[in-house]
Specification:
The protein is an alpha/beta fold. It is built from 13 helices and 10 strands. Helix 5 packs antiparallel against helix 7 and helix 9 packs across helix 11.
Length: about 350
């Protein structure tokens, strides 16, 4: 292995001019210098393209790709195609990593040189509040190596909502492993649960995965991001993602175990889209129209309908159990009150819901 591992950091950027400097500057100031940064401007309408070019002029380690808007998956894959590093890392354009991230990762790689994936934890940033523990892997050891079938169990846990390991970021992936097993994003998808689908395969086909009990990433709760908008297109993107995930699982061993976890994860998604789209206070549809649209999502998507019938409530928190009961009983009118309550707590800074 190269004595100086070379990192490729892939950053898709779409209308992030307000946040891009906070994302790029910590990379420029990494205490380890053997890296390249690939900024993918995904057809931004603000000053993001100019800022990307400005950074590329300042530092030769920065590459910029300008492309028509195609969504998060196409942007990440555009960056993936031009990487030259030994290791790949994804980071969103409105998030950031600590300045000693690469240096610390190199030390772990020195101890475990033949791993396929290294993964770690993330801090959620809500305004002035930095919150730990919303999504977090349960291992309490400083470092833990997962081998062979244990990586299958990691893959299954990507489907567990609170696991904290279902995102494309917070991972370092060996480039030759990614290329051998096709561990890029599925180009049939746009966004939604694209990171979950990617992580599911990334862990499943790995021979060795190293967990390090560190917080390197900072995830910004950005109300202007595409995933936070009250937009029914996001539901269609999620449906696409979970249908592909179901296809992935058909190629796995232990299908029944994976499907049980998949059904519960879909229930979490159905609750999430109820809260964030169909019954969100910003949605101006009448209650009857909201109910009609939401019920149609479930009734016309066979995988979602199956999940409502088969999902277990094991390990669900009390509020989600209640919400799921209303969904199962088709008492959709109750979801509006729960959605308003969630937004109230969010405005009060209660992000760990």
């Amino acid at each position: 292995m190269n004595q100086q591992p070379f990192f490729s950091i892939i950053v898709p950027c779409y209308n992030v001019e307000k946040y891009l400097r906070e994302c790029v500057e910590p990379i420029l100031h990494q205490t380890y210098s053997h890296w390249e940064l690939i900024l993918i401007d995904d057809g931004s309408k603000d000053r993001t393209p100019q800022l990307c070019d400005e950074y590329a002029r300042k530092d030769s380690r920065i590459k910029v790709i300008h492309k028509e808007n195609g969504g998060l998956v196409s942007a990440r894959n555009a960056g993936y195609e031009v990487t030259t590093g030994d290791w790949l890392m994804y980071l969103d354009g409105d998030d950031w990593i600590d300045t000693d991230t690469c240096e610390k990762l190199v030390k772990y790689l020195g101890k475990y040189p033949d791993v396929d994936i290294v993964f770690w934890k993330c801090i959620q940033e809500l305004g002035s509040n930095s919150i730990k523990g919303k999504w977090e892997w349960t291992c309490r050891e400083q470092e833990h190596l997962y081998v062979d079938d244990e990586c299958h169990e990691l893959a299954r846990h990507t489907l567990v909502y609170k696991s904290g390991i279902a995102t494309a970021y917070c991972k370092l992936i060996r480039a030759d492993y990614a290329k051998t097993y096709g561990i890029s994003h599925d180009d049939r998808l746009r966004q939604g649960a694209e990171g979950l689908e990617f992580s599911l395969r990334a862990f499943y086909y790995a021979k060795k995965a190293l967990y390090v009990n560190e917080y390197f990433n900072h995830y910004r709760y950005n109300p202007d991001s595409i995933s936070k908008q009250v937009n029914e297109k996001n539901t269609a993107y999620l449906i696409d993602c979970f249908q592909v995930i179901e296809e992935d699982i058909e190629k796995f061993d232990e299908k029944a175990i994976f499907k049980a976890s998949l059904y519960q994860r879909i229930v979490y998604v159905l609750i999430a889209i109820a809260m964030s789209t169909y019954f969100h206070p910003a949605n101006k549809d009448s209650l009857s129209a909201k109910i009609k649209k939401y019920s149609k999502v479930i009734e016309t998507t066979s995988l979602f309908k199956k999940a409502v019938q088969k999902a277990k409530t094991t390990d669900m928190d009390k509020l989600r159990k209640i919400t799921f009961l209303f969904i199962r009983l088709r008492m959709y009118f109750m979801l509006q009150a729960i959605a308003s309550l969630k937004q109230y707590y969010l405005k009060k800074g209660k992000f760990n819901y």
